[in-house]
Sequence to fold (301 residues):
Amino acid sequence: MQTKALFALLIGAGLLISVPAVACEGTDCILASRNDVNLYPIDLEASIGDLNPGVRAGILSKPERINRLMDNVLINRQLAEMAKEAGFDQNPIVQRQMLLAAERVLGEHARAAEMSKRAGERDFEAYAREQYAVRMDEFSVPPITEVAHILIATGTLCHADALVRANDVLIKARSGEDFDSLVQQYSDDDSKVTNAGRIEVSEKAGLDPAFKQASLALTAPDQLSEPVLSSYGYHIIKMIEKRPGMTPSYENVKDALMQNVRANYQRRIKDTFFSDLRADSPTTDHEAMASFMARFRAPTQ
Fold:
């Protein structure tokens, strides 16, 4: 990110009054300080430099998120100064941890550069169109029959009593009583609280076969089924509407396809890259490894 753009964002966030008259980059000026610990432009640039552009823009577009970012960097720097004062930076293990942290950063830059080089220029849209043609069935939305149902469960009633109650409810529904009210009054399906007994049914739906078959057999809005026995009990099913199936156009699924194609390609590139790095097995000193592990082995009683 250009330093001038960073200053403009900080001004927009109310963290700076104006862009310095003299160019201020790297550590030429102080953006913020606390307890003699300073925050420089390069610190913020380093903190956000590796973030996804969308995430980075989101952070820098909101004053509270910039404040939080600056505070985190300052806190870490304050803690680091405290660690130095305590002499932790002279500890060989801490020094090695710092080296490993630096290697992780360098390794990530090397990985990103190599991935970019290996990826090159690819016509992802051509492959996305090919995937659309091959996988069209996956994008198709099947015909939907929306129904409402009343369940008379056979868990607490015997089948005969449950069927009698189901027929009584069916008579009420056919006589014109409000079906939604009957659902709330008689249905033993706990989900009625959130869905009012309504279910979308298709050939692919993972529903009880008897319930699905009876629902799909209804042909007209407000049509009522006879009591249908499923593994849960007896259902009175009312058809709400039928919606035809459809296959979305390529343009409607293009963004999702392109994202999937890019992600799969990047994953293959990454897998190949790391396989290349692991092509030669490491040479291990087994005696030294055994000695190292013995240092951390719990003593035997």
